Amino acid sequence: MAVTLFIIRKLGGAIATMLTVSLLVFLALEVNVADVAVKVLGQFSTDAQRATWLAANGYNDPVVLRYLRWLGAFVTGDWGTSTYYRTEIASLIPGRLAASGILAGGALLVIIPVGLIAGVLAGMRPGSLLDRLVSLVSVLTTSIPDFASAVFLSAVFVFWLKWLPGASTMLSGFSISEIVLPVLVLALYSTGYLARVTRASMIDVMGTHYVRTARLKGASPTRIVLRHALRNALITPVTVIMLQFPWLLSGVIVVEVFYAYKGFGTLLYDAALNSDIYLVEACAMVSVLVVVATQILSDLAYSWLNPRVSLADAAMGRG
What we know:
- Helix content is about 75%, strand content about 0%.
- The protein has helices at about 1-30, 35-40, 45-55, 65-75, 90-125, 130-140, 145-160, 175-205, 210-215, 220-235, 235-260, 265-275, 275-305, 310-315.
- The model is unreliable at about 315-319 (pLDDT under 50).
């Protein structure tokens, strides 16, 4: 029953969020019907052509009716045709989203183990040489924006050492060497941030009464960390990890454009650059869907790791 209430509450919030965002996106891009006609038909189209197109596509109807019609078409999978790529948007997005998923997945394979292990080891002995080293590297990596990291890593590994290619076009098929740099750039910031969060959480847990009791009973450091401290110390880091999904979705735009990688970020960039409003709308809604899905998964993981917060509490809004 608690799980059902939790899911219903979260799905209700997710639907409300998506409806709100869909309305804002629609109003931002389609409230001025004259601009829509120009963006779809081109700036060299005549007034008569634009008027004919607007009438044929229902743009002379009230804005509320147009929004409901657009929303219904989106829900049923009719996302329209891209004016830039000249193809159905519904067939264009999945492949690009999967390509970005490869980058995000590769980044997470670096972020999670490195960030957690570094944070746990640093938090076990605060003030030690390892702790200071982890803190220094974490501060440095989280202070560098994505585009600066991309330039620096490219200068080192592409132009100086000549170990890796400078572009990730994948023209000859999937290549590990071509995704190394994009993955490193995506992982650099988040790894340092996760290490700092894990370190702080580990320090807090190691100072709790049950850890001190276990230490007084003669438990080994390994047993103290694995049996008593680690699960509670991971509560905040796991939430941070789940929040990396929407961050990676937005951060991947800079990385993909820099390395010419054909993913979701490049797709959204091209759509915005070429005023492809239908594609921008679809990408925005897909992004919102990813964000609300990761929020639900984050709440589930939090309730599993923290025994003091049950799904019943979360379902009633007490989490």
